[in-house]
Design a protein that fits this description.
about 40% helix, 12 strands, TIM Barrel, alpha/beta
């Protein structure tokens, strides 16, 4: 049995839910399937289960988790009790299930691993969003995601309240220090990008105030202010004076992000929300029916 494909989650392309579920289940079940459940549980046995969170979380990936159970038991009854993006307390029931016991046990770990990982990203992201509330700055994610899970990781960041930055390398021109080093200067790199005529927004990373005017003169449409302390960021904000959007990045954490946001930058990008978010504690409790 297979799960149903979906266009969500994830911007920038089609997410194949069927393929994802199939690959994850294959990884967990191997060629022999759940030998323990087959050995100990009757084929016709049914379970009722509640999926509970054991700490305060922001939910992300509930429908994806449900798809694992449906993939192995097309008749399983799944009832969602919360929705993605909800901020909930410990002990909240996320979903209830009723169906074949063997199938539910076989799908459990894949479903929980996915939901715990994505909700961990959403939960950490919400902490960053709350830390800059009222400043006018917008939190962005980055391409620092688990390989193969970018659409899901960025979906989870969005559920936490961040906006997605580039999904892929073809989403925008982002000139970084290595590009500048090869090109010879910020203005040379930007001028080359303008001449390339990609039709995409041109953003360039600068780490010194004196790079700003040459970048703008060459045609930069957005600046990434890299590893600048708050006093330097305020100087950059005053110099640019709204001509292009400004994004602060580098070394941002929960202790520093508020001061960065209060400098007046438009965006703050944080790799930690997808790269370093711990999984949250979610469990599945069963009873025979």
């Amino acid at each position: 049995m297979t799960a149903t494909s979906s266009d969500a989650p994830g911007p920038g392309g089609h997410f194949d839910l069927n393929d994802f579920v199939s690959r994850v289940l294959a990884e967990d079940m191997g060629s022999g399937g759940d030998v323990t459940s087959r050995a100990t549980i009757a084929a016709e046995a049914c379970f009722t289960a509640e999926m509970n969170c054991r700490e305060p979380i922001v939910v992300a990936g509930l429908d994806i988790a449900a798809a694992f159970f449906r993939a192995l038991d097309r008749d399983v009854a799944v009832t969602a009790r919360v929705a993605d993006g909800d901020q909930i307390e410990a002990g909240t029931v996320l979903m209830t299930l009723n169906g074949n016991a063997r199938a539910m046990l076989a799908a459990e770990r894949s479903a929980l691993n996915t939901l715990q990982h994505l909700s961990g990203i959403a939960t950490l992201t919400r902490r960053y969003v709350e830390a800059i509330a009222g400043t006018g700055a917008t939190l962005l994610d980055t391409r620092k995601t688990i390989p193969g899970l970018r659409l899901l990781d960025k979906y989870a960041a969005r559920m936490g309240g961040a906006e997605n930055h580039r999904m892929r390398l073809d989403d925008g021109v982002l000139i970084k220090d290595n590009h500048v080093g090869v090109a010879g200067s910020v203005e040379a790199a930007v001028a080359a990008a303008v001449a390339a005529g990609t039709g995409l927004q041109i953003q360039v990373e600068v780490d010194r105030i004196e790079q700003i005017e040459p970048a703008l003169a060459a045609g930069a449409e957005r600046l990434l202010l890299d590893n600048m302390p708050p006093p330097r960021l305020r100087e950059a904000v005053a110099l640019v004076a709204g001509r292009v959007p400004l994004e602060a990045s580098g070394g941002v954490n929960l202790d520093t992000i508020r001061a960065i946001a209060e400098t007046g930058v438009d965006y703050i990008s944080v790799g930690r929300i997808t790269q370093s978010a711990p999984a949250v504690d979610i469990g599945l409790d069963y009873r025979l029916t």
